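Example 4.3 (complexes with small molecules)
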Amino acid sequence: MTGNEPVARPILHSRLVNPPFGDPGVYVGFMFEKRGLLFDLGDLQPLSDRKLLRVRQVFVSHTHMDHFTGFDRLVRIFLGREKTLHLFGPPGFIDRVSHKLAAYTWNLVASYPTDFTLMVGEFGTGGTLTRARLRCRGAFKPEKLDPMATRNGVLVDEANYRVQAAVLDHGIPCLGFAVEEHRHVNIWKNRVEAMGFRVGPWLRDLKQAILRDDPDDFPFRVRWREDGTTRETQRPLGELKAELTQIVPGQKIAYVTDVAWNEDNRAAILVLARDADLFYIEAAFLEEDAELAARKRHLTAAQAGWLAREAGAKRMIPFHFSPRYSDREDALRHEAEAAFTGATKLRGASPA
Ligand SMILES: [Zn+2]
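Answer. The structure with zinc ion bound is encoded below.
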């Protein structure tokens, strides 16, 4: 970083894998890194092999075909590579993955020079992550690993981001997800010297103290080398924060699909997607077919818009449109948008 004004740039960029009438799914890429995340594994045809090979973690809402049929393509591309792929899904997911792999013959893989490995995690209402490892050289026989406790449904917590899951109801358990960048702390380096200090490792400690939310009156130790000697002083953390740093909030992207319109789902979705910058939410049916939507445990466009509005999402991207409306895409979009902006009120949706 230079003394120039630090710029807030989101590191995550996301897109729907398919058009809204196609299989559901979102690909998330990273600005400064060849890394990708995938939400759901339906038809992956629009994604190049190069893009798919960047994927480190895959989050599957449930294993209905339109959300899981792309698994084979993914495995085929990774096979023969020294790579590890992490997959997360609802209860029963390890079995689903194992059965898919067991459909193929693996008599030649034991001598492969590489060992493509799948780390599979199952997340249910207890908040525990049940885990298994399936190695190529082991013919993808699942090896049980110790279960892991999660906090607030956080499945993955990496240097730049974390991914959280919520167990929702689609007649079967179905996971909703939110990926969130960590806050960044940018330092105005030109101001460091203006305060009489020099740059040094203390700036890294300063960033960490801020990200830990240490109190503003904490006496922070500033320590630097100057003219061959070490110098040291103390300043309140709040003062250094105000003078030297810019705190950039992380971007949040939520992904919710295949969920029934019921009280528990609404409550869980509103927590999961709270203040999302981008909310991908299914809008399968029109409100005029609300009964059909209820039978199929899907949302209507108006319900999707209502949820995005109540969650305080900045932007909503409706998807997973039912093919029955293939010539009425505008109607679905308008209905979702009208509920999102509050132009129309949804009947019976008041959070009692
Ligand atoms: Zn579906």
